[in-house]
């Protein structure tokens, strides 16, 4: 069914739109978005149909276009509902997990300026889509370490189905101590402050005084520019 709808064309069209809007400026991010099947990371998502309480429509591959088209639009997708309850016309529940809006993901990756030889932690693995993009930009799977507080098994399976085998750890990024040095750091959740566990000692050969760190904008976001801050930490 997905082959019939041609996800390759849809992914390249998404990359084209993000480049036209200015969210993508580098060839590396463009090629990553254009060649990564976002649908592989979002087997199910929920569409907001309004109402009080909110009525959600569950979309799966069996629904063909209604499932696939939102995935390759510049849209944040709810992927999991807490306290989910099936009702006659759909679902009730509270969103607890989502696939980040592609334009925001693209801007974070552009700001990081990931190079093939960079070692990168993806904190907040989620669906695995951002990790799949990063794996297109670095020299090999050993360059990426991903972590999340839950759902890592499903994300690992999705990445492995795409031929990716990065290091994946189930842990809280704000308290987990990696004992490893990184070049760029990305967080896929609102980051209220920088904890000691996020401070990494820089490589001796690194001439830069600080390693770039990126997190999406959110309430309580630290730093001069929400979402694109560079804190004075090592890596």
| Widest β-sheet, arrangement of strands | 7-6-5-8-9
How would a crystallographer describe the biggest sheet? 5 strands, parallel
As a whole number of angstroms, the C-alpha radius of gyration is: 18 Å
SSE run: HHHEEHEEHEHEHEEE
Q: How far is it from the N-terminal to the C-terminal residue, by CA?
A: 43 Å
Class of secondary structure makeup: alpha/beta
Give the overall average pLDDT. Answer: 83
Low-confidence stretches: 200-211, 219-235
Instruction: Tally the helices.
Output: 7
Quantity of strands, as a count? 9
Shape summary: globular
Approximately what portion of the residues adopt beta-strand conformation? 15-25%
In helices, the fraction of residues equals: 25-40%
Q: Any key phrases for this structure?
A:
five-stranded parallel sheet, alpha/beta, 9 strands
What does this protein look like?
With about 240 residues, the protein is of the alpha/beta class. It contains 7 helices and 9 strands; from the N terminus they run αααββαββαβαβαβββ. The strands form 3 sheets. It has a 5-stranded parallel sheet, covered by helices on one side. It has a two-stranded antiparallel ribbon with strand order 1-2. Mean pLDDT is about 85; it is low at about 200-210 and about 220-235.
């Amino acid at each position: 069914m997905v082959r019939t709808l041609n996800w390759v064309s849809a992914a390249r069209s998404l990359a084209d739109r993000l480049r036209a809007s200015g969210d993508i400026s580098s060839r590396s991010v463009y090629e990553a978005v254009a060649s990564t099947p976002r649908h592989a990371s979002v087997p199910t998502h929920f569409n907001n149909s309004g109402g009080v309480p909110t009525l959600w429509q569950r979309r799966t591959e069996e629904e063909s276009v209604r499932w696939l088209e939102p995935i390759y639009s510049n849209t944040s997708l709810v992927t999991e509902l807490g306290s989910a309850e099936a009702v006659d016309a759909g679902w009730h529940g509270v969103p607890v997990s989502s696939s980040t809006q592609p334009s925001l993901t693209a801007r974070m990756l552009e700001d990081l300026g990931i190079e093939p030889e960079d070692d990168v932690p993806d904190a907040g693995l989620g669906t695995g889509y951002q990790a799949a993009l990063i794996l297109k930009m670095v020299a090999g799977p050993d360059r990426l370490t991903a972590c999340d507080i839950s759902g890592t098994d499903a994300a690992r399976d999705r990445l492995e189905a795409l031929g990716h085998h990065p290091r994946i750890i189930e842990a809280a990024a704000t308290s987990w101590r990696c004992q490893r040095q990184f070049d760029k750091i990305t967080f896929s959740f609102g980051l209220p402050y920088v904890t000691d566990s996020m401070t990494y000692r820089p490589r001796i050969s690194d001439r830069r005084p600080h390693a770039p760190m990126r997190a999406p904008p959110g309430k309580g976001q630290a730093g001069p520019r929400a979402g694109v801050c560079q804190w004075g930490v090592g890596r």
